[in-house]
Design goal:
Blueprint: H1 21-34, H2 41-58, H3 62-69, H4 73-86, E1 92-96, E2 99-102, H5 103-129, H6 132-142, H7 153-183, H8 193-224, H9 243-264
Antiparallel strand pairs: 1-2
Helix pairs in contact: 1-5, 1-9, 2-5, 2-9, 3-5, 4-5, 6-7, 7-8
């Protein structure tokens, strides 16, 4: 559970740490769409270079990004294997029943692997360089135009900030409960699938109890401080869009234009 980096922030003074969260959010969301513009090795090489340039600018060790990738490696490998075995293509290298491996399916599987890794790296880069509350403020500010159609933007931002704030806490609670259960003789790795599922129950019950207790304490603390929602509230953290934020967005625009030019021109 210590490998789960979602919601964790590493303090720093790098260029990415100082950027506006709205710019980083916009680039992250746009990157998910831009990555599908790459259809060959040149395109993916450009995206890999762009991602690793962001890692270098963050001044965060690569081990943190690899730790963020580790919990997802099972899903990634399953998806890659499924793509390789069930996608028709030519020339066929191996065939058995409904399973077929071809050169094109292997290439597509490798591309999907890179898509997963790059998206996880970019999302990890976003959370590691942006405090959760600042990230929530950026989302709330970005959704501000939706207030005109009666969307509760402030409440959505509040729920997001609370969720991001307590994800690491829940992970730490899970680790503590698992260690306590192991000290009492519980083995989470033995038995068949049904027994492994049943062994999770001694973790979930105390985790839910502690989560509801923490939520109740938080609600009481907010009410005692006179919280009334977003109407008429001032902000302690003010977001300022600067030239470097514009350059960050333009950098992804340049990458997207380069991909389109390489693939279709």
């Amino acid at each position: 559970m210590q490998n789960m980096l979602m919601g964790r922030y590493i303090p720093g003074d790098s260029l990415l740490h100082r950027m506006d969260p709205r710019a980083k959010l916009l680039v992250m969301i746009a990157f998910v769409f831009v990555i599908f513009l790459a259809t060959d090795w040149v395109g993916y090489a450009l995206l890999i270079a762009y991602t690793f340039l962001g890692v270098l600018l963050s001044k965060i060790r690569m081990t943190y990004f690899l730790r963020g990738l580790r919990p997802m490696i099972g899903l990634i490998l399953f998806t890659v294997l499924f793509q390789m075995l069930f996608t028709p293509g030519t020339p066929v290298l191996w065939h058995f029943w409904i399973l077929t491996v071809s050169r094109s399916s292997i290439i597509n599987a490798i591309y999907i692997f890179f898509r997963f890794v790059l998206i996880i790296f970019m999302s990890t880069l976003l959370t590691l360089t942006t405090p959760p509350l600042t990230l929530a403020d950026g989302i709330e500010t970005g959704l501000a135009p939706l207030k005109k159609i009666k969307v509760p933007v402030h409440e959505l931002g509040l729920m997001l900030s609370i969720s991001l704030r307590f994800i690491p806490t829940l992970m730490d609670d899970t680790t503590m409960i698992m260690n306590a259960q192991k000290a009492r003789g519980m083995d989470f790795g033995e038995g068949n699938l049904i027994q492994k599922i049943r062994s999770v129950i001694p973790i979930l019950i105390p985790l839910f109890v502690s989560s509801f207790r923490r939520a109740d304490d938080l609600a009481i603390a907010m009410e005692s401080r006179g919280y009334q929602g977003g109407d008429g509230r001032t902000r302690y953290r003010l977001l300022k869009w600067k030239k470097r934020d514009t350059l960050l967005v333009l950098s992804l625009v340049v990458v997207a234009a380069a991909l389109i030019a390489w693939q279709y021109v």
